[in-house]
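Weekly sync, protein design subgroup
Attendees: M.S., D.O., the rotation student, P.L. (late)

Item 1: inverse folding check
M.S. brought a backbone from last month's batch and wanted to see whether the design step gives back something sensible before we order anything. D.O. pointed out we never logged the input encoding, so this time it goes straight into the notes. Structure tokens as presented (313 positions):
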């Protein structure tokens, strides 16, 4: 007669089986825990750092003559790369500038193809599920852009000093915004925000997704959209002489969205190095000149924004 044993009994009676079962259980536990992204170790072994950037996001990042990346984000990442080189004790550190798009930038950071995304973007709960972020590098937000010959009522509805009526609803604001075409870069938080506003306040308008800011500006000039929503700094970077003459960026901030650099999750050592470097940059009196170089006036409000980001030693 064949004896039947429970799994527990088998583990007790057969040492080899018990060891194998323990190993299998351990491997299952390890597989369930996300592996840390050892960015600094990978950089040290390869002698290279991969820096991602959008080629059409002036003044944050863009491809200059000869394809060389330039911009505010490029300057920040160059200084971070210098700190990495010093901290790792490397004689040489090759900077690989990797162009990314709206469709692949998060996956490249998540998969390790990009160590640091140098085009600042805003941190969201959805994005935090896949990647991590540095301390803030820019006080961003959405503004409305329109043609200078747009109806005064439209400018007042979205401008700095609107009437006492709510911005998105009520008469005559609803009528002003109704049946308009609103452009926004596809896949961005701006697109999500615009969709929510239109739905919440039941505005009968059309959202026109565009690939980037340059396309948004062009559609506005060609009268294919009535308003383009985006960050003022990037809009100005996408405008040429003709656009500067015919378009206006309104002063009213419709959202407040600090922007950050993007890096892999579960990598506290690399994030600490990035954040401490940025903190030192902000604390340096020369940072005001750096900011002015790309964005113009470094006013009190902006200075206070960065002072709040500086970490204590």
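Designed sequence read out in the meeting:
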């Amino acid at each position: 007669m064949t004896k039947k044993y429970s799994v527990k009994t088998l583990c007790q009676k057969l040492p080899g089986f018990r060891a194998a079962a323990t190993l299998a259980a351990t491997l299952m536990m390890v597989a369930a825990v996300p592996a840390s992204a050892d960015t600094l170790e990978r950089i040290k072994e390869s002698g290279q750092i991969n820096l991602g950037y959008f080629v059409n996001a002036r003044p944050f990042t863009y491809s200059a003559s000869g394809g060389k990346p330039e911009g505010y984000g490029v300057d920040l990442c160059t200084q971070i790369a210098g700190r990495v080189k010093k901290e790792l004790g490397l004689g040489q550190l090759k900077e690989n500038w990797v162009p990314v798009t709206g469709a692949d930038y998060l996956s490249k950071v998540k998969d390790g193809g990009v160590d640091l995304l140098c085009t600042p973007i805003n941190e969201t709960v959805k994005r935090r599920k896949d990647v991590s972020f540095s301390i803030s590098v820019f006080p961003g937000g959405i503004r409305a852009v329109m043609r200078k010959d747009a109806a005064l009522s439209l400018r007042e509805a979205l401008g700095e000093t609107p009437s006492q009526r709510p911005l998105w609803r009520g008469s005559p604001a609803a009528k002003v915004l109704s049946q308009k075409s609103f452009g926004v870069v596809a896949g961005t938080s701006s697109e999500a925000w615009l969709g929510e506003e239109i739905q919440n306040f039941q505005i009968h308008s059309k959202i026109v997704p565009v690939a980037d800011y340059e396309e948004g500006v062009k559609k506005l000039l060609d009268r294919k959209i009535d308003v383009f929503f985006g960050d003022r700094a990037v809009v100005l970077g996408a405008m040429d002489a003709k656009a500067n003459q015919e378009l206006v960026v309104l002063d009213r901030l419709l959202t407040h969205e600090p922007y950050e650099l993007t890096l892999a999750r579960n990598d506290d050592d690399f994030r600490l190095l990035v954040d401490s470097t940025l903190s030192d940059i902000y604390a340096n009196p020369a940072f005001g000149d750096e900011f002015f170089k790309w964005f113009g006036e470094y006013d009190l409000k902006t200075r206070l924004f960065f002072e709040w980001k500086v970490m204590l030693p």
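Discussion: Residues 1-15, 17-36, 162-166 have pLDDT under 50 and may be disordered. The chain is about 45% helix and 20% strand.
Action: P.L. to compare against the previous round before Friday.
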